[in-house]
Automatic annotation (TrEMBL):
Name by which UniProt lists this protein: N-acetylglucosaminylphosphatidylinositol deacetylase
Gene3D superfamilies listed in its UniProt record: LmbE-like
Entry's Gene Ontology cellular component terms: endoplasmic reticulum
GO terms of molecular function: N-acetylglucosaminylphosphatidylinositol deacetylase activity
Source species: Pleodorina starrii
Matching InterPro entries: GlcNAc_PI_deacetylase-related (IPR003737), LmbE-like_dom_sf (IPR024078)
Family annotation (Pfam families): PIG-L
PANTHER family reported in the protein's UniProt record: N-ACETYLGLUCOSAMINYL-PHOSPHATIDYLINOSITOL DE-N-ACETYLASE, N-ACETYLGLUCOSAMINYL-PHOSPHATIDYLINOSITOL DE-N-ACETYLASE-RELATED
């Protein structure tokens, strides 16, 4: 009986991980990815598996951090901690930009869309990314700084759609668009169940292949998760090692978060839209 149960568990785990392994993007070495976060440590707590997968595939990951994390007066320290954490995640300092804007200070308040868009568009025009990755509408933890980034990105996408629908063509120049992905906020019962949460997420995923490498996306949300990308941890300690670089933030509940968080073991990204790089202007 015991052997039968173990075989059943093993089969279920194999099936779940097979479903997840099918959901990798068709990256090409040299692709550029822009990760937009709100605070130093977001990259370690939430996006470590995406970053490490991209780095292994030869993707150049750039980080735009929209605040110094100065809520407790430790902004300068936290910026240097971000550099060290990113080095652990194989992101060189030259690819990291940290914004210190009076309108975008770390705190439990919503940031204005124009202020976020100003820095977003500047980074996009400078980096010309193939992908942009950030938080979704619930921001994983619900922090208003996180959700503000989503609202600004959504604003850029909608502005381009409106511009394209008002023009005679589709508004594109034939260049490959920048695909926008958002980190899926998992339901609370799944969010803090670690590896079990990964299995539950896999079981809940609708069947379907990633649309990231194909050319059929029209910039709409994939909806329901059918086209979600999933990045599994090859080294679950990576998230912990990156977080340990953030000494000023290393309190017991953050360590517990890393231990039990499903994001330590997998990142699920959803296609949210796309941006025509040549249409991204500072005044939108
Ligand atoms: Zn944050």
């Amino acid at each position: 009986m015991f052997i039968q149960i173990m075989c059943l568990v093993f089969s279920l785990c194999t099936w779940c991980f097979w479903r997840l392994r099918c959901r990798m993007p068709n990256w090409r070495p040299g692709h550029r990815s822009l990760l937009v976060i709100a605070h130093p440590d977001d990259e370690s707590l939430f996006f470590a598996n995406y970053i490490s997968s991209a780095a292994r595939a030869g993707v150049q990951v750039y980080v735009l951090c929209l605040s110094t994390g100065n809520a407790d007066g430790l902004g300068h320290t936290r910026v240097h901690e971000l550099y060290r954490a990113c080095a652990t995640l194989q992101i060189p300092k030259a690819r990291i930009s940290v914004v210190d804007d009076p309108d975008l200070q770390d705190g439990f308040r919503t940031w204005g869309i124009p202020a976020v868009c100003k820095h977003l568009t500047a980074a996009i025009r400078s980096i010309q990314p193939h992908q942009l990755v950030t938080f979704d509408s619930r921001g994983v933890s619900g922090h208003p700084n996180h959700t503000s980034i989503y609202r600004a990105v959504r604003h850029l996408i909608e502005a381009q759609r409106a511009c394209a629908s008002g023009a005679s063509g589709d508004g594109s120049s034939g260049r490959e668009p920048c695909r926008v992905y958002t980190l899926v906020t998992l339901p609370l019962p799944i969010k803090f169940t670690g590896l079990l949460g990964v299995l539950l997420s896999a079981a809940a995923l609708p069947s379907g292949r990633s649309s990231s490498g194909g050319g059929d996306s029209r910039g709409s949300s994939s909806g329901g998760g059918a086209g979600d990308l999933v990045f599994l941890a090859r080294d679950p300690s990576l998230c912990f090692r990156a977080l340990c670089c953030h000494w000023s933030q290393l309190v017991w509940y953050r360590l517990l978060f890393v231990l039990f968080s499903t994001y330590t073991y997998a990142n699920q990204l959803r296609l949210t839209g796309q941006l025509q790089l040549d249409l991204v202007t500072a005044d939108r």
